[in-house]
Amino acid sequence: MGTGAWPIIRTIARKEWVEMMRDARFRWASGVTLTILAASLISGWHQFSEMRDLHERAQREERDRWLNKGVMNGHPAMHFGVFVYKPYLPLSSLDDGIAPYVGSYMLLEAHEQKLFQDKPAEDRVPMRRIGEMTAAVCLQVFMPLLIILAGFSCFVEERERGTWHQLLSLGIAPRDLCIGKAIGVTLPLMFILTPGAVLGALAILLHSATHLDDTSMRLAVLAGTYVLYFLTVLGVTLTASLLAHSSRQALLALLILWFVNCLMIPRLATDLAGRLYPDPTSFNIAEQVIKDRLSSHIKTMPEIERELIAQYKVKSLADVPVNIEGIYLLDEQRVNDRIYNRALNTVYSTYINQDRVIQVAGLIAPMLAVQSISMGLAGADVGTHRDFAEYARHYRTQMETILNEDSAYHLPPGPRGRELWEKIPPFDYQPPAIRVVLGTSGLSFAALVFWAALAAMALQRAALRTL
Amino acid sequence: VKPLRALFRLEWRNLWSDGTAATILLMLAVSILYAVFTGAHFIRSQESTLQTFLAIEKHEVDIRREQNITTTALIDQGKLTEIAEWSNDPKITPLWPSWDFQLQRSAVQRFSALAFLAIGQSDVYPPGLKPYSPGRYFKETVVSVEQAENPAKMMTGHFDLAFAMLYLLPLFVIGVSYDLIASERESGLLALIISQPVSLRTVVLARVLVRTLLLLGAVLTFSIGATALNAMDWRHDQAPVRFALWLSAICAYALFWFGLAIVVNARGKGPASNAMILASCWLVLVLLLPAAIRFGATSMFPVPPRSELRNAKRDAIMQTGVDLWEQGVKELDDPDSRTSRLVNEFLAENPNLNLAEPPLDGQEVRFRLFDYSEPENVRNRSQKWRNVPYLQRFELVNAARTAAIEKMIKPAQDHFDRQYRRQHSFFAMASYLSPQMLLERVLTNLSGTNAEQHDRFLEQVETQHRAWKLFFLQRSLAARLLRPEDFDRFPYFKYEPQEIEDIVNRLWGALAALALMPIFTIATGFVLLGKHST
User: Fold this and answer.
1) Tens digit of each residue's pLDDT (9 = 90 or more) over B53-112
2) Alpha-carbon gap, residue A329 to A244, rounded angstroms
């Protein structure tokens, strides 16, 4: 493209810009989208800061409670347990992902491992899940609609008005025409999005003093992802506008594509994932736990007594240099940990497999790919959730082992105080680094790039065929 | 009537001849069949594993019952005359009323017969609860039953029949009715048509009737057919009445959209403009307005996060004493201690609960009290408590402490409840602004899968939980060991679904609004048609 083409492209782009800005439909749609985006950004940010502060405070208070709970035996202390809270990443203000459906804290206590407690969605007004007003839904579902509205009539309207051949007869290169139109459609959209994006990014970065590098990297990748997604939608929209016989046909086809991409395929993909890797229903897991419990043997006190007497070659339990109750608790812990680890592994490995299927489905619906990347970067996906659950599981095992071993080997047995409680380190979970997220979202990135390339090729072919 | 009949026949033929009817039927059939089968698959898998789970849970209790029978027989035969006042020996624990947690079975909200048509919130709520603690929000979910399915799946939602009807059906209506007269008006044909002895209203009426008959006929036929294929259990929950109401609500919703299409067509714009306006209406009424109302409800009446309640409870536990098993029980020796104060308050507030003095009449077994000399045991030394078995001391301290915690967290819980009720009431009121929200409320209520039904379930669990705790507390304080016949008296949870009369009473406003909306839009459409004759 020579430098001489730029004035023509600029003229075409300006004409598109002016037409779009004069179009009442576009002005209304932009206004509505911008309002939704601003409201969801403010609300998301407000909710994030509130929850982050609440969780940080609660985690500190839990530590204080743990250290200051007084004098008691280790086992009652384990029954009191500790609540652990999943930290919120700043990007979760844009996309809270699965957070409303899993909860973000769990009680680590004696005998059994638990999944997360108190899903926030339980307490909210009932909703069909697409009704969540978050910045992510706005960008993934409503923005494509705005792009469609902005671009569906871009080429086809020229044909309907009869100005198409006039334009071409002026000697404008088809490629310049295409580029000019694309820029003309993109500029008003950028005009809408840029202030929100800049302000949102600044707000997030200002509150990420401790993890500035990580957050800015995540923001950059997220921004790149959305730009690619919007360009893909724009490419598809312009292709439809080039190929359609009428603006009505273009709009209808694009609306169907939007519906399929944003509302239909996500449901079908999760259904397919469930068929390929059936969810162990909650009752399956509970049944497995009971069966394992019934078929497992926790040594009884008389059995342990016999074993200890034999092991230490003494005549009575009074001569054994350990506390039998502690030994009993250690044996019980060993059995229970095995049972619950098996149950939780079944649950999470199924979820991860299903997640892969959903990522592959991003090849059919780019919205799924963007959704997956966005949730991963916001730390609100199944992978991060599992990472936290695993960390909490190890922490719980470590905590229970320290207390039970103290009960078994620290003689004489009896109530303990702060000295023992301090042996349990503070709970300090760090979410996976961005490179881990990028690794697990590889399929989604590939799907998005595939779609972007497909849209570009389709646009090029349509332009060559039509112009 | 005659011209109407002739126009009706003509339109019917037109729809079939241009392939529109066949396309609509095919798309509707695929959507409805897929939705019904997907919903049925979800509910069926939950149901079947639920039955297995409940059976194995009962089996676990039965094993303890067998053990109770064996040990009780030894006591009755005089072969076992003394047991330790506390033991974790599995031969003894089924005798302790304080080990009721081993005898409890889960409280489960059974799926209604129509649940598979609108899965609603049922995937979000915990499917089973083990009521360990009083207070609606402190029920522990059944071990490992917290998560019903992949959260990513919950986030996306299900493709059930309710989804197909709420989102897809209006699009089908728009697809067949955005151009009732617009093209003919543009081409001038309309003037020719109404120059015949037939009014514009009759033309539109015939066209709307044909499309309504085709669309609703297909919806009803496929819905009933798919439901029949999925072997819905018609005997439970007054299912035929519920299903009839379900389908009637859908018909009203579809008619509302037809009415809206008549209004838009009557404005005299072109087909593209009509399509655009109707698509915008869909977007606003089906997506944006419900989302905005939810946003408003959660912003104006935010329900505090449950972690606040959990924190309030943890603080209350710290104040009442963390270790009630040992330190709490030992504190009874000091009449001025925190535990003694709580116990005195509890007994004063519950005059019907008394500590019995063992050995009891007719009870053959004696409790072997712990040895004084062992420092780690939980033996009390004061005159008042030294001969009271641990079973009584522990349960009394536990009940007193639980009652105190309940009082302490009540303000936080009341605040939570108030906000929850306000948010839900606002949402229910605002649902009158959107036919989509009204329909969703009606469908999920009839299917027993919405928040209101779940709230009823939680209330029932709370009632049962209090009855359960009282049953075992009375036995503990009376120092009565459980006997085999007690197992038949345990107050297990039984879910009472809501009667259809109650549902209709609660929903009459929504049902009336759903019935009036199509009347309003259709009437407005025909009035406008009269004003713009060509």
Assistant:
1) 888 889 989 999 999 999 999 988 888 888 877 777 888 889 989 888 889 888 888 888
2) 73
Please report the residues numbered 294 through 353 in chain A whose beta carbons come closer than 8 angstroms to any beta carbon of chain B: 294, 300-301, 340, 343-344, 347, 350-351
> Who wins on pLDDT, B258 or A466?
B258
Burial letters for A76-90: b for 16+ Cβ neighbours within 10 Å, e otherwise?
bbbbbbbbbbbbbbb
Contacts of A343 (CB under 8 A, 6+ apart): A285, A288, A289, A292, B144
**A122 close to A239: Cβ distance less than 8 angstroms:** no
**Rounded Cα–Cα distance for residues B277 and B288 (Å):** 15
The upper half-sphere exposure of residue B461, i.e. CA atoms within 13 Å in the direction of its Cβ, equals 30
- Contact of B327 with chain A, judged by CB distance below 8 Å, is answered with yes
Contact of A120 with chain B, judged by CB distance below 8 Å, is answered with yes
Q: Do A294 and B158 lie within an 8 Å CB cutoff?
A: no
Tokens of B41: 């698959």
d(CA B439, CA B170): 12
Question: Would you say A111 and A394 are in contact if contact means Cβ atoms under 8 Å apart?
Answer: no
Q: What is the mean pLDDT of chain B?
A: 85
Task: Name the phi and psi angles at A398, rounded to 5.
Answer: -60, -45
H helices, E strands: number in chain A: 20, 2
Contact B370, B389 (CB under 8 A): no
Distance CA B198, CA A290 (A): 74
Residues of chain B contacting residue A119, judged by C-beta atoms under 8 Å apart? 124
CA B302 → CA A87, A102, B417, B459, distances in Å? 21, 19, 11, 22
Range in A407-411, B13-17, B73-77 the model is least confident about: B13-17
Nearest CA in chain B to A59: B311
A413 contacts B124? CB cut-off 8 A: no
B450: nearest CA partner in chain A: A126
Q: Is A417 on the interface with B (CB under 8 A)?
A: no
Report the C-alpha gap between A279 and B148 in whole angstroms. Answer: 8
Q: Is the ipTM of this complex over 0.90?
A: no
* 8 A C-beta contact, residue A391 and residue A296: no
Q: Do B272 and A128 touch (CB under 8 A)?
A: no
Contact (CB, 8 A) for A363 and A444 = no
B310 Cα to chain A: minimum distance (Å): 9
Encoded tokens for A390: 């695993």
Q: Residues 35..94 of B with a Cβ closer than 8 Å to A: which?
A: 38, 45-46, 49-50, 52-53, 56-57, 60, 63, 88-90
- Whole-number Å distance between alpha carbons of A219 and A378: 9
CB contact residues (below 8 A), chain A span 132-171, against chain B:
132-133, 137, 145
| Contact present, B2 and B206 (Cβ < 8 Å) | no
- Nearest C-alpha in B relative to A355: B152
Distance CA B102, CA B297 (A): 41
